[in-house]
Amino acid sequence: xxxxxxxxxxxxxxxxxxxxxxxxxxxxxxxxxxxxxxxxxxxxxxxxxxxxxxxxxxxxxxxxxxxxxxxxxxxxxxxxxxxxxxxxxxxxxxxxxxxxxxxxxxxxxxxxxxxxxxxxxxxxxxxxxxxxxxxxxxxxxxxxxxxxxxxxxxxxxxxxxxxxxxxxxxxxxxxxxxxxxxxxxxxxxxxxxxxxxxxxxxxxxxxxxxxxxxxxxxxxxxxxxxxxxxxxxxxxxxxxxxxxxxxxxxxxxxxxxxxxxxxxxxxxxxxxxxxxxxxxxxxxxxxxxxxxxxxxxxxxxxxxxxxxxxxxxxxxxxxxxxxxxxxxxxxxxxxxxxxxxxxxxxxxxxxxxxxxxxxxxxxxxxxxxxxxxxxxxxxxxxxxxxxxxxxxxxxxxxxxxxxxxxxxxxxxxxxxxxxxxxxxx
Length: 425
What we know:
By secondary structure, the protein is mainly α. The protein is built from 18 helices and no strands. The chain has a single domain, classed as Growth Hormone, Chain: A, CATH 1.20.1250.20. α1 (2-34) packs across α12, α7 packs antiparallel against α13 and α12 (228-258) packs parallel to α14.
């Protein structure tokens, strides 16, 4: 289990490193480089729009890689998704800017971001099922939480490198070539990830399906025909987590550096401290989920994010590093209370024959609803002077939606994962 957890954790860390490094670059430099001639605000909105393309691609990646996972096994998904995301990220780092190739630059940027989204859409389901389907029943949330630590580590890697570069290079150097370094570094990380996954065995649940000739002939059709309501409920339930996470990790960086005149190095440091706290808390919350259930922890996390929304904006608006760090940490702890058990929860909600397709699609559809438009919407809501309370209302509304959806889902703790039947809600 340690070896399996390490491989699943390393893969999600690398994949989400690729995904997050784009978000940080979009908040800091991509606007003027790829959308010159726009006003500062319009260029940022355009960069965030290309950022959203990655989220839109994620459900499609879930369908493509989910079918592969349900027909050929969880293991092939881990290799192909990581390879796709790594190649797309490296190519972003090599991409000429608008002043070199004109309109082709933003077009290619969008296509590469779409490729990143496809890969990440497939990665999560393969990594989580690898851990949860190997795990003993009483520890599924704990072992399935290790892939959930991966995104936090990926974020810290991406932003740690950005922080180092922004702190050591001049603005001109960072704009000219410094921002490319984290994208190119993704190639090395992808190679390491592929080596770590080379010796991983297929999961017992999939082997049992294959040996019993019980594989779904068309997992996508089966999921859409028989489990569409469950997918929509799960996607709605996860929405507030994505809204809160991307408000903190992407929008707050732009808000602090442009509206509050906080240095990008300072704000990146505030966010990274909060994300490190989130990573450390993940297995602790997962142990609670194994003992008391998935659903109570998810409802508590959503409620906590909704209650923290207005204090969070008030603290961010101070522009003081200590209070901004507290604002970020206060949002990310209830977020991870929910997402620490989501890996096990989704695996238990869907039956094995369509589990990769169903769990991945629901998870990434929630990403579209909560993550794709959040930086754009929040930037629009923050127009004008004063504290942008509309952003807090947006998070609180998403939390209310998620609580309602979780309330309609069943508890699954104690259900044997290899035999779990589709949930009815």
